[in-house]
Amino acid sequence: MKVNKDSKTGTYWFVVSAGKDELGKRRQIKRRGFRTEKEALREMSKIMQQVDENTYVKNTKLGYSEFIEGEWLDSKALKLKSVTLATYRHNVQKHIVAYFKKVEIGKITPQIIEKFYAHLVKEKGLSETTILDIHKIVKSSLKMAVKRKYISYSPAADVETPKVPRKEMLVWNLEETTRFLKETEGSNLYMAYLLALTTGMRQGEILGLRWKDIDFENGTLQVRQTLSHDGKYFSEETKTKSSTRTITLTEKTIEELKAHKKKVAKEKLAAGSSYQDYNLVVCTKTGNPINPRNLLRDFYKLMKKANVPKIKFHGLRHTVATLMLTQGINPKIVKEILGHSDIRVTLDTYSHVLPTVHKETAKQFGNLLFG
């Protein structure tokens, strides 16, 4: 390695080899514009020492928001399922970018990250799951920033996993569930609510369900496609491998699905050439997917009419699981119906229900043994 002189400007420059990057490409560090050869040599020696000690970082004022929304998300797009990537992108844009704005990546400290988590808990009121997901994103992105030599160490490495007070899970009891279903019978979106409260399917799974996924002969449906949170695209990649599953339907659900299919066929005929046939079970009168926001708007309106406690749409899924467990259904079966990746997820999520289940099981077993 040597210092070179630019014959046009009379200044000095050099190139230092810095090994290979994480993609296996040669990394070179170039510096130009030194007035004297001595200045160039001094800077070259300094950089070579930093490279040897693995402490070299780029001379940059790169913003953290710019990096995470650009380089980091681009790298994840090559590895993640589209469903997971959409969740990452949502958390990055709505929470991380909104908070850090023009903060330079090199000026982020553990204290700044801890204040960010406190902001998410106190001011945003996010759930434990969402904050832990954001924590994983922050750790992963700053680890990549170290590899790409934007920072010498990750400040997230010194930040503990945020402790978030677990919110009470809001669900309906059996009487509230049946009252709500009765109220929804006249709604255009009745089928969405019926599926939610008889199968425990997620919102995106219900809105992505197709007629070809339903086996009327065997009384089952397969969860194989989801609609994105913004309602703009479908994905045949479910949340996890176990989310792709087969669910046995109740007789009432099968009966209502058959009636609903006839209704959809009439709407298709009436719409004629303007009908967009996505083969969807729950759709608009012209065949298009239901916008999730419109579903939620209708859901909140119907809750008020039915005079039931206000819960999130995802609370319908929790309601199904809670009702099943309190009726003594094996947690392993509940896990398979909900499509959880691990039985531990089911047991942890619904741990508040299990003491009641154990008590009832002990009572039944006692009756079996002793009458």
Automatic annotation (TrEMBL):
<dbReference type="InterPro" id="IPR028259">
    <property type="entry name" value="AP2-like_int_N"/>
</dbReference>
<dbReference type="GO" id="GO:0015074">
    <property type="term" value="P:DNA integration"/>
</dbReference>
<dbReference type="Pfam" id="PF14657">
    <property type="entry name" value="Arm-DNA-bind_4"/>
</dbReference>
<dbReference type="InterPro" id="IPR050090">
    <property type="entry name" value="Tyrosine_recombinase_XerCD"/>
</dbReference>
<dbReference type="GO" id="GO:0003677">
    <property type="term" value="F:DNA binding"/>
</dbReference>
<dbReference type="InterPro" id="IPR010998">
    <property type="entry name" value="Integrase_recombinase_N"/>
</dbReference>
<dbReference type="Pfam" id="PF00589">
    <property type="entry name" value="Phage_integrase"/>
</dbReference>
<dbReference type="GO" id="GO:0006310">
    <property type="term" value="P:DNA recombination"/>
</dbReference>
<dbReference type="InterPro" id="IPR002104">
    <property type="entry name" value="Integrase_catalytic"/>
</dbReference>
<dbReference type="Pfam" id="PF14659">
    <property type="entry name" value="Phage_int_SAM_3"/>
</dbReference>
<keyword id="KW-0233">DNA recombination</keyword>
<comment type="similarity">
    <text>Belongs to the 'phage' integrase family.</text>
</comment>
<dbReference type="InterPro" id="IPR013762">
    <property type="entry name" value="Integrase-like_cat_sf"/>
</dbReference>
<keyword id="KW-0238">DNA-binding</keyword>
<feature type="domain" description="Tyr recombinase">
    <location>
        <begin position="167"/>
        <end position="364"/>
    </location>
</feature>
<protein>
    <submittedName>
        <fullName>Site-specific integrase</fullName>
    </submittedName>
</protein>
<dbReference type="InterPro" id="IPR004107">
    <property type="entry name" value="Integrase_SAM-like_N"/>
</dbReference>
<keyword id="KW-0229">DNA integration</keyword>
<dbReference type="InterPro" id="IPR011010">
    <property type="entry name" value="DNA_brk_join_enz"/>
</dbReference>
